[in-house]
TrEMBL record:
Pfam families for this protein: CHX17_2nd, CHX17_C, Na_H_Exchanger
Domain of life: Eukaryota
Subcellular location: Membrane
Protein source organism: Cephalotus follicularis (Albany pitcher plant)
Cation/H(+) antiporter central domain location: 440-567
Residues annotated as domain Cation/H(+) antiporter C-terminal: 584-725
Biological process per Gene Ontology, one example term: regulation of pH
Keywords, comma-separated and alphabetical: Ion transport, Membrane, Potassium, Potassium transport, Transmembrane, Transmembrane helix, Transport
Protein name per UniProt: Na_H_Exchanger domain-containing protein
Record-annotated membrane-spanning stretches: 29-48, 54-71, 91-111, 123-143, 155-180, 192-214, 226-242, 302-328, 335-355, 367-389
Sequence ranges assigned to domain Cation/H+ exchanger transmembrane in this UniProt record: 17-379
Membrane topology category: Multi-pass membrane protein
Length: 728
């Protein structure tokens, strides 16, 4: 028999090799772990030592891994989702479990020749597992597909949370009923009482203790290690308690996980500390063990029955979910994707089937069929969902939403994104420099973006409709209070609506673009990913935010501005106490869509006497003569003519035919102004910028924006890089 270490090495070698190939097809990694088990297990009996002994060695380790996985899944699951689930999600969650269960039960009665063996062979208990909805499986699938915080993903998660709790209740009830009928009613009653005691201890002893830990952990500080170890010790005790209670062996850790306060500081600390160990070691071993124990050779008289019941139940689950979403006016492709996701099977179901097989409630050939069914579904569902559902298509620019197409003396819809407290000051200073008035008001939607940690489901909060949530997160509360104060200082000229989005950083663009779409936003303001100290040294450099900005630029349903804050764009209160009660703003104009958009924003600012605007037009002698450039030149001439006629704007026009001359001009401006506005002009080649793109460090800013953000050009001025709404 190979040693435990050799078995583990073989599992990881085979799983990683297969995943290297399968990941290109969009197949989840747990399928590769399952394939490793199939290779090492009975299917490779002639090549590798076959073995019941191998499974006996790995069995306890994999069982511990599954318990850890269920505990972690409970921690990540926000039980509040069930309370907040709308009618649509609740109906789908309930009916997608009950109707398939009913259909499977009817099919079971028709194909089961001996009605008196209905409970003896545990067929109904298996039918319950076929119809159940698993929140952890669906959350992992949505994360794999990168649509967990899309509109579809949120609805699926809410429905799955409702369906999961209902499924657990049905499974436990059926198991108790089976014990009462087949064994003894008194034993069933004892099991119910013991299970109730366990749940009460978790709710009224362990959860209050964990809430005490959260309450006594200073804001922004990590939970003490001693408290983390205490929770893990309690988790290990729940495994023993579950085993003692018998029926809830695999439910105990999950129930305890649900009781852990989700999110920071405790929930996120537990997930961060053990996620690598669970997903990287324990879970692969569990899945591989499930594959190793498969024994092919359909010999029992129940296999035909369960194939029929499984297919009827799964088909009904798909059709019910599809019909309900279509009745709710969901597009056909989206509804089909929803039905596929809600019908997905995965690691949780493998645990259920393993539990039933270990307790002699399922023949080996039925177990093998069900594991192969999970393998097939897990390979097909992600591919089909990717083909059916594209969340970015709703951002397509069917309507022009930019600053140029907004009337000059009308309300400008803006979306300001906030990551850290420093962003608040920078954005407020930019809004004040926009000089809103009653005739030119600003409608600002403030979106506070928080990284999802310690829970599986993203959260989106509108603080206009959920005022009580302010007290739950003082960090968001401070952000909102600052903007509300700005609104009061500009009463009648500025309206503020505040939102908080808690989601994975790599998917935050979904929240930003969806909110921009829903609020008819004309321009999104994004903080630049790099921040500096006043002496020019780098304070922070967040590449996750850089990737986020890229994603927004590519998908935004409106114009986008990236704000590079140098800390010198003065706050409104500073202007009141300063001898220079005005903002000095410059706009560098070369021509093109982005520059015209940037100039329009600058022109809107210049209508107030507090702003001293300088427009510097750098043109080349010869920029080509095709139809597109001729049309662009005509549009450029039109907006420039309007600026020349504006007596409040200082206009400078210079001929520039070389990038080095442009760099020299910009170098002389960085200490003269509070803010410089430029167009992004991504991948636009002109004589004025020739040679500069070779030194570009931040392509998302364009050549000029990148130049102004570089260390060589460090000065006091902040920079706003504008990209007009993409129309292609």
């Amino acid at each position: 028999m190979p040693s435990l270490e050799l078995q583990i090495f073989a599992i990881f070698l085979i799983s990683q090799s297969s995943h290297f190939v399968l990941k290109r097809l969009g197949v989840p990694i747990f399928i590769s772990h399952l394939i490793a088990g199939l290779v090492i297990g009975p299917m490779a009996a002639e090549l590798i030592h076959r073995s019941e002994e191998s499974i006996q060695v790995l069995g306890p380790v994999s069982a511990l891994g599954y318990a850890f996985f269920m505990f972690q899944s409970g921690v990540k699951m926000n039980i509040g989702m069930v309370k907040r689930a709308g009618k649509m999600a609740t109906y789908i969650g309930v009916l997608s479990v009950l109707v398939p269960l009913l259909a499977g039960s009817i099919a079971l009665q028709f194909v089961n020749e001996e009605a008196e063996t209905f409970y003896k062979n545990s067929s109904f208990l298996l039918t319950v597992t076929y119809s159940l909805t698993s929140f952890p499986v669906i959350a992992n699938l949505l994360s794999h597909l990168k649509i967990i915080n899309s509109e579809l993903g949120r609805l699926v998660l809410s429905s799955a949370a409702v369906g999961d709790l209902l499924s657990l209740f049905l499974f436990a009830s059926t198991a108790f009923l089976k014990i009462g009928i087949e064994v003894h009613r008194q034993l069933a009653q004892e099991e119910i009482v013991l299970s109730a005691i366990y749940v009460l201890v978790v709710l009224f002893v362990l959860r209050p203790a964990m809430m005490w830990v959260v309450k006594h952990t200073p804001e922004g500080r990590p939970v003490k290690d001693i408290h983390i170890y205490a929770v893990i010790l309690a988790f290990l005790m729940t495994i023993y308690a579950s085993k003692y209670f018998g029926q809830i062996l695999i439910l105990g850790p999950f129930i305890f996980g649900l009781a852990v306060p989700d999110g920071p500081p405790l929930g996120s600390a537990l997930v961060e500390k053990f996620d690598c160990m669970v997903s990287g070691l324990f879970l692969p071993l569990f899945v591989a063990t499930c594959g190793m124990r498969m024994q092919f050779g359909f010999t029992s008289n129940l296999i035909r029955l369960h194939i029929i019941v499984f297919l009827v139940t799964m088909l009904t689950k798909f059709l019910v979910s599809l019909l309900l979403t279509l009745l709710c006016k969901m597009p056909k492709r989206d509804a089909s994707a929803f039905a596929l996701i809600i019908s997905a099977k995965g690691v949780v179901e493998m645990g259920w089937y393993g539990y039933l097989s270990d307790n002699m409630l399922m023949p080996h050939d039925v177990y093998a069929f069900l594991i192969m069914a999970i393998l097939y579904l897990a390979c097909q569902v992600p591919v089909l969902v990717k083909w059916l559902y594209d969340p970015s298509r709703k951002y397509a620019g069917y309507r022009k939403r930019n600053i140029m197409n907004s009337k000059l003396n009308s309300e400008l819809q803006m979306l300001a994104c906030i990551h850290v407290p420093n962003n608040v000051t920078a954005v407020i200073n930019l809004l004040d420099a926009s000089c809103p008035t009653g005739e030119r008001p600003l409608a600002v939607n403030v979106l506070h973006l928080i990284k999802l940690s310690g829970q599986a489901s993203p959260i989106f909060i509108s603080h206009q409709t959920e005022q009580k949530t302010l007290s739950n997160n003082s960090y968001s509360g401070n952000v909102i209070t600052s903007f509300q104060q700005f609104e009061r200082n500009n009463w009648g000229a500025v309206s503020i609506n505040a939102f908080t989005a808690i989601s994975p950083t790599n998917l935050m663009y979904e929240d930003i673009c969806t909110l921009a779409l829903d609020t008819l936003t004309s321009v999104i303001v994004l903080p630049f990913h790099r921040r500096w100290y006043t002496d020019g040294s780098i304070e922070s450099d967040d590449h996750a935010i850089m990737t986020l900005n890229w994603n927004v630029l590519e998908r935004a349903p409106c114009s986008v501005g990236i704000l590079i804050d140098r800390g010198h764009l003065r706050h409104p209160t500073e202007l009141l106490s300063s001898s220079e009660s005005s903002h000095k703003i410059a706009m560098i104009f070369f021509g093109g869509n982005d520059d015209r958009e940037a100039l329009t924003f600058a022109k809107r600012m210049a209508q107030d006497t507090r702003v001293k605007l300088t427009v510097r037009y750098l043109y080349a002698t010869n920029q080509g003569g095709d139809d597109t450039s001729t049309w662009n030149h005509m549009l450029d001439s039109e907006v420039i003519r309007d600026i020349k006629d504006n007596g409040y704007v200082r206009y400078i026009e210079e001929e520039v035919n070389d990038g080095h001359v442009t760099a020299s001009i910009l170098r002389g401006m960085v200490n003269e102004y509070d803010l410089i506005i430029v167009g992004r002009r991504y991948e636009v080649d002109t004589p004025q910028t020739s040679g500069l793109e070779e030194w570009s460090e931040f392509p998302e800013l364009g050549v000029i924006g990148d130049l102004l953000a570089s260390a060589d050009f460090f000065g006091k001025c902040s920079v706003l890089v504008v990209q007009q709404q993409q129309t292609t």
